[in-house]
Amino acid sequence: MLAVEEALKRIYGHIKPLGTETVPLRAAANRVLAEPVIARHNQPPFDSSAMDGYAVRAAEAGIGRSLTLAGTAQAGQRFVGMMDRGQCVRIFTGAPLPIGADAVVMQEETEVHGNQISFLEAVRVGQSVRRQGNDFKRGDALIAPGTLLTPARISLAAASNLPELVVNRRPRIAILSSGDELVQPGSSIGADQIVSSNNFGLAALLSPFAERVVDLGIVRDDPKAIEAALLSAFDDGIDVLITSGGASVGDRDYMQEVLKDLGVAMDFWKLRMRPGKPLMFGVRGRTLIFGLPGNPVSAMATAHVVVKPTLKRIVGLAETEWPRFTVALAGPLPANGPRRHYLRGKLIRNDFGMLEVDPISETDSGHISSLAASDCFIVQPENDEGRSKGSVIEVIPLDWG
Ligand SMILES: Nc1nc2c(c(=O)[nH]1)N[C@H]1C(S)=C(S)[C@@H](COP(=O)(O)OP(=O)(O)OC[C@H]3O[C@@H](n4cnc5c(N)ncnc54)[C@H](O)[C@@H]3O)O[C@H]1N2
Ligand code: MOO
């Protein structure tokens, strides 16, 4: 049985870049940048006001002093000419600072008497002025390749005057569910039948990293039927194929056998993780194949711990891992065996406002409602002796990034 890190290293060795494409800003959210965003102008492009008020020479303004109003500067329409000594200019947020002014006084700190403006507070040079290039300067590298395009980064790319961005292509993913017992949600459930749920959870988890996720439906535990479904996925040029079920050693667990018959080079089967031990991984041409166990929690755990990091690599994210995230346990953990245990956990605040993780005692890999009630996996190391309340342990946040 392979350690999780070793498995990831082997999978990463098979990843081939998918190339790039150009997308408009509106379609760029959550994509990964392929070519750097370099500033083509200064931001702000000119010294500008940060407040609605009056542009002044700081040395002439101040408590008890007054200046003569010489005109107005609006955002989009500057005050033309020079602001002379003894003068001030009505100015609004974002307007260019008039020539001669070196500070802005917010209007709440002034009094207006006709065209005379007097000042209620001390004024310093540069006050409420945004200097040209203070945000970014022409030539600055604003966003590096390999960066996830978050909302703020999309806003920055737009501010740098780029209407479209070059991003990495995303893989086409297909999901196949196998099992004689499976029926689609909404069916009338016959004797011995189970509703197929893995494909829905997996698609929801993985679609942010996919060009599209194709649900290939349910296939019976019949080698010929499995073969036909797999062949059609390979013919469609799927980049990542995910199967669930039939991964173990049961008499009707055909998945591995059929994959091999179709020319899939199996790289590994079985990991030192719990749940999720029977995970298999192989490659056929350009397609990476993950054979996930059928148990619903095992399928989701292997998708979180193995498939998702792989997809982050495929889409070219430079940082595929969160910084290790450790918190104190709100309750004890029993000893662990030789497989790393991914336990369901709920993040809570203790009486002092500190974040803690409350272990959920349910460990059955078929028990999906307890996973749905969790917001993280607690990562208990292999052969851990057990932990007492308050001991610090790593957690993997489930649905935030
Ligand atoms: N003798 C052994 N038996 C088992 C071992 C073992 O090492 N020796 N490993 C166990 C472990 S660990 C797991 S995990 C499971 C994995 O089994 P399979 O991948 O073959 O999964 P199935 O048998 O097809 O299904 C297991 C379970 O999950 C339900 N299922 C399947 N597909 C779906 C789906 N799409 N949506 C919802 N639920 C699904 C299925 O009905 C079964 O209840 O093997 C252990 N056995
Ligand atoms: O690994 Mo299985 O997923 O323990 O039930």
From TrEMBL:
Question: Cofactor(s) for this protein?
Answer: Mg(2+)
Name a biological process GO annotation.
Mo-molybdopterin cofactor biosynthetic process
The Enzyme Commission number assigned here is 2.10.1.1
**What is the enzyme's main class?**
transferase
Which UniProt keyword terms apply here? Answer: Magnesium, Metal-binding, Molybdenum, Molybdenum cofactor biosynthesis, Transferase
Kindly tell me the pathway this chain contributes to: Cofactor biosynthesis; molybdopterin biosynthesis
Q: Do the record's keywords include Transmembrane helix?
A: no
* Pfam families noted in UniProt: MoCF_biosynth, MoeA_C, MoeA_N
**Reactions mediated catalytically:** adenylyl-molybdopterin + molybdate = Mo-molybdopterin + AMP + H(+)
The record's section on InterPro entries has: MoaB/Mog-like_dom_sf (IPR036425), MoaB/Mog_dom (IPR001453), MoCF_biosynth_CS (IPR008284), MoeA-like (IPR038987), MoeA_C_domain_IV (IPR005111), MoeA_C_domain_IV_sf (IPR036688), MoeA_linker/N (IPR005110), MoeA_linker/N_sf (IPR036135)
Q: Which residues form the MoaB/Mog domain?
A: 174-313
GO terms (molecular function) for this protein are: metal ion binding; molybdopterin molybdotransferase activity
Q: Name the domain of life.
A: Bacteria
| Gene Ontology CC annotations of this record | cytosol
Q: In UniProt terms, what function does this protein have?
A: Catalyzes the insertion of molybdate into adenylated molybdopterin with the concomitant release of AMP.
Give the similarity note: Belongs to the MoeA family.
- NCBIfam families in alphabetical order: Glp_gephyrin, molyb_syn
Question: What protein am I looking at?
Answer: Molybdopterin molybdenumtransferase
In which organism is this protein found?
Devosia enhydra
